[in-house]
Amino acid sequence: NPTDRYGVLIYLDTLDPVYGRGWQRENSFVTHKGSGVFCYGFFPHGAIPSGEGRAYRTTVVGPGVLPDLFWQGNAPGPYNSNKDAIANAEQRAKYSDGLCHAN
């Protein structure tokens, strides 16, 4: 838990999105202080198209002397409204801190 008023920094990369081959930086953002929750959606952000790719990875920068954490996983496949509803319900139940809102 960082000692300042911010959360930890997360970098989100996507593999082979529409805006370039290989690993591309999709975005970076700060988690919510205390909960570690972060909100993000793969949809166009201004002039930047949706960063959907074949796989995703995140790097969570460890505060102070803590190490950086890494995660990588394959894309979940085509949109499925049932899976989306289940995931939204799980996010509301487990991870909501009042700052993020699932669909």
Care to describe what's here?
The chain has 103 residues and is of the alpha+beta class. The chain is 14% helix and 26% strand. It contains 1 helix and 4 strands. It has a 4-stranded antiparallel beta sheet with strand order 2-1-3-4, with no helix packed on it. The radius of gyration is 15 Å and the shape is globular. The two termini are 28 Å apart. The model has no long low-confidence stretch (mean pLDDT 80).
Give a brief rundown of this model.
This protein is α+β, with helices and mostly antiparallel strands and 103 residues long. Helix content is 14%, strand content 26%.
Unreliable segments (pLDDT under 50, ≥5 consecutive)?
A: none
Q: Looking at the structure, what is the overall shape? A: globular
Number of helices: 1
Strand content range: 25-35%
Rg computed from alpha carbons, rounded to a whole number of angstroms? 15 Å
Order of strands, main sheet, comes to 2-1-3-4
Oligomer: single chain
Distance between the termini: 28 Å
Helix/sheet category: alpha+beta
User: What kind of sheet is the major sheet?
Assistant: 4 strands, antiparallel
Number of strands: 4
Order of helices and strands: EEEEH
Overall pLDDT: 80
- Provide the helix percentage: 10-25%
